[in-house]
Design goal:
It comes from Didymosphaeria variabile. This is Tautomerase cis-CaaD-like domain-containing protein. Pfam families: Tautomerase_3. With about 170 residues, the chain is α/β, with parallel strands linked by helices. The chain folds into two domains: about 140 residues, 2-Layer Sandwich (Macrophage Migration Inhibitory Factor); about 35 residues, no CATH class. About 25% of the residues lie in helices and about 20% in strands. It contains four helices and six strands; from the N terminus they run E-H-E-E-E-E-H-H-E-H. The protein has a four-stranded mixed sheet, with helices on one face. Helix 1 packs antiparallel against helix 3. The two termini are about 20 Å apart. The relative contact order is 0.16.
Length: about 170
């Protein structure tokens, strides 16, 4: 499962349409792999400006004198954390024709492209980080998910939900 947590000032991502469009763009990154769409979780966490500090200055904030040299404190700051569980970039190194740095760079480019119209093009300051956690400690609806590329995972993707499956169909 990819889990994206988007921490943002309340002054950003105010409408349901804005959030839905960004969530769909994020989901496209993973369904192209392909992953079942329901694996992708996007959480929007609105915060008061006095709960987001960069370099000790609230963002956004009218306290421009506190900047010293540095970023404009009037600009909202968006922080995104991404957890990848269902697939890891390190797992893709096993694909013979792929080099790990190319796979990583391709993934980061897709993340940048998904975020650009929603964050960068709006002039917000932003950053993201990606964690890759163990698939062994992951369950959905109480099920250990089927292996990547298995018949059962294809069924999950087609039905867009977790269902019980024959373990033979869940392994490669």
């Amino acid at each position: 499962m990819p889990l994206w947590i988007i921490y943002h000032p309340r002054s950003t991502f105010k409408s349901e349409d804005e959030k839905a469009t960004l969530a769909k763009d994020i989901t496209k990154i993973y369904t192209a792999v392909p992953l079942p769409a329901f694996y992708v979780n996007v959480l929007f966490v609105p915060l008061d400006a006095t709960s987001i500090y960069v370099g000790g200055v609230a963002r956004p904030s009218s306290h421009t004198a506190a900047n010293g040299p540095g970023q404009d404190s009037n600009v909202p700051f968006i922080r995104v954390t991404i957890q990848n569980i269902a697939r890891k970039i390190s797992d893709l190194k096993l694909i013979p024709q792929s080099r790990s740095d190319e796979v990583r760079d391709r993934f980061l480019k897709r993340v940048d492209e998904a975020l650009k119209p929603h964050i960068a093009d709006k002039g917000y300051d932003w950053e993201y980080s990606i964690e890759e956690t163990s698939r062994d400690l992951w369950k959905i609806q109480g099920f250990v998910p089927p292996m990547p590329g298995s018949e059962a995972e294809s069924e999950w993707a087609k039905n867009n939900r977790a269902t019980e499956f024959d373990p033979v169909k869940g392994n490669l």
